[in-house]
Structure formats: structure tokens, C-alpha cells
Amino acid sequence: MALRDLWTRLRGSDPTQPSEPPEPPERDNPPQPAPPPEAPPRPPEPPAAPPSPVEDPVPDAPAETPPPFREPPVEAPPVELPPPSPLPPAEAPPPQAREPAAKGGWFSRLKAGLARSTAKLTDSVTGIFTKRKLDEAALEELEETLIAADLGVAASRRIVEGFRKTRFGKEVTDEEVKATLADEIAAILGPVARPLVIEPARAPHVVLVVGVNGTGKTTTIAKLGKQYRDDGLKAGFVAGDTFRAAAVEQLQVWAERTGARFFPPAKPGADAAGLAFDALTTARAEGLDVLLVDTAGRLHNKTALMEELRKVIRIIRRVDETAPHSVLLVLDATTGQNAVQQVKVFGDMVDVTGLAVTKLDGSAKGGVVVALAQEFGLPVHVVGVGEKAEDLRPFAAHDYARGLLGLD
Length: 408
Ligand SMILES: Nc1nc2c(ncn2[C@@H]2O[C@H](COP(=O)(O)OP(=O)(O)OP(=O)(O)O)[C@@H](O)[C@H]2O)c(=O)[nH]1
Ligand SMILES: [Mg+2]
Prior knowledge:
Residues 203-362 form the AAA+ ATPase domain. 43% of the residues lie in helices and 10% in strands. With 408 residues, it is α/β, with parallel strands linked by helices.
């Protein structure tokens, strides 16, 4: 049976429907005392956690016969949180200083990060169009180049059609082609370049962060948390990836760095939905502005993951029926077309409201953002170009398109 059919069937018994008997949230996650607002100054250290391997776009179902996710290990010891690690202090420039100071440098870094994607795209363009007539054969080669650069079939076709309409039969140079390509790409990206707007009036605005493991969920939460702090918002992080102690520790370190309120599970494997319920209850009482909920990227299989995500949503709606206010799907640009697959799979599980695309530094597959925009039209809120807290930026269509083509 196709997996999608399986999920559709599962959704048929949608646990969010009122027919389901109420299920008390697990209360094994008492609110933890608030951490000090600022971590003490620390010497530099490499990133908080080692890179997680990027696995299949989605875990296959059903895998072996693992224990159900709701049952935590019986005698599991409490999560041992690490002693404060020697990390750099959270940089907290005044909110107004952040954007202007970074703007010029940011574009250079985006461009540098995209260099491999740019090379893939422009080397071929230069090869095809060194003073050449834009005929059928040239258009065909252009389309192949775009597809090979991960822009996807639909976007590549759309772009080539644009060329056909405006330039067909004319003699063109590679520079003209690059400039036109950048315009066409910017036109595709424009509608999806939308910021993740936090509405503090939600008190708090809940952002559920989902994605395959290793894509950068936890790091993206940390980066967003820093931005919100810089903007004067009070943020909380919920360590919803409760099975892995390392995941909890990683988020705690980031919470300390960024001055975010931290909500850990009471013990490894504790119920993520119960944790989220308690965290949201406390966050409301404490007047937090934004609550970022980390989630596991992979459970035993897809069904278990879907069940967990849907349960988290169902349970937090008992505190705030409008939550989560955003469901952010984090994608790793280095996985190319797998990212497209991941949007489909997660879109079937939950209502994804927007995307974060990470690891654009050093990825040769930055063109995939164009494929995502064309295929799904979901907002691309932010892009990640590095591992540091400041390496996350709002997605800007024009800059991205120019950067991808290596243009200024
Ligand atoms: N170069 C680069 N590395 C990144 C970026 N974003 C995240 N990473 C790194 O990718 C690795 C995985 O990031 P995590 O944030 O742990 O990913 P995750 O999705 O939370 O992973 P799981 O918790 O295992 O599901 C870490 O080493 C991060 O430092 C980025 O934009 N650029
Ligand atoms: Mg994580």
C-alpha cells in the first residue's frame, strides 16, 4: 500500500476530532525554574552538537518493531544536563544595529555560500551561450542546465518559456542570459519570500518546528531565539525531541546562550505532547512572547512521527485552540530534491505554514529553493548560511536570485 494512502487512512481517524475521548496531558514535565537571563561569558567552542547524519527524506514505515513512543524507558534516569559548556557569550547588539550592520556583509556571505550552486549553474550557461542564437537547441540545453542545478522541472520549464517569449531567435550573450535568469528566478521566488511574523499578542506565538533529523531544526530554533531576543521579545524553547538526551542538552546550551526560557522533559522519552502542554501553560503565565517547540526528526517510523506531531498539536490546543500559530518545516539545502519530497511528506502529516532552508553555505543545490517555491508556494521565511546564531536571515528573493547567478 502506498504510504500516502496509509497516512490518509490514519488521518481518517483524526485524533483532533471531537469524537475522541479527552486524554489528560501527561504531567511528568513540571515547569523548570527560569534560567538566568544571560549566560555568563564563555570562551569559544565549536558548535553545540556534532552534525547529525541526514537520513532518508523520511523514515520508512514500518521499520523494526520498536517500543511505542509513548512508553518511556521504565527506569530511565533523569536527563543529565551538561555543565555549562565553554561557549561564546550571546552577542546582543541593540536591535536596530543588527540589520543595517549586517546587510552588505550578508549579501556577500550569501553569495559566497551559494558559490558552488552558482558554479553549477553559470558554468553551463557560459558554455551554452557564448554569443549564440537563442534557438530550440539552446533552449533545450538551458532547460537541462536548470534541472541539473536543482531548480526542478516545472520552474525550469517556466523559465525557458519566458526566454522563448522574449528572446527567441535573438543573439544573446551569457551575461544577458544570466541577468534574465536572475529576473525570472526572482519572479518565482518573490511570492514566497515572506517573513515569519511573530504576533506577541498571541502570548505566546507558538512555532512548532518540524523536519527530518539533521536538517537544522534545533540550530534554527536557536538562531530564531537570538533574533527574537535582539528584538526585545521573550522567547522559550521546548525540548520536544525528548528521546535523545543530546538533543535536550543541545537546546539547553542554546537557550543559555540566547537567554531563552528553557523547557526540558522531566526524563528521557517523556511525552512530548505533555511537555508542550506544560510549557505553553507556563509560557502563558509568564508572559512569553514566542514559544519555539523542537521536535524529533525521526521516530521508529513515519506513522509514529506523524502520531507524535499530531498529538503535540492536539494537546497544546487545549491550552490555546489557535496554536500552533506557525509550523515551520526545516529543510537542508544540501539534500537537493529530497527537500521537495520532505515538503510533501510533512505536508501530509501537519499543516506546514512555512519553510526554513538551511546549510546554503557550501551547498551546490541552492537551486532547490526555486523548485520549492514553484511547486508548493509555501512561504520561505528564513535561510541558514552557517552554524552560528547570526547565520540565519530573512529570505530575500532578489538577493537570492542574483546570488545564485553570481551577480551583484
Ligand atoms: N553549515 C551549516 N550548518 C548548519 C546550518 N544549520 C544547521 N547546521 C548544522 O547542522 C547540524 C544539524 O543541525 P541540528 O540543528 O542539530 O539539526 P536537527 O534537525 O535539530 O537534528 P536532529 O535533532 O538530529 O533531528 C549541526 O551540526 C548544525 O550546526 C547551516 O545553515 N549551515
Ligand atoms: Mg535537533
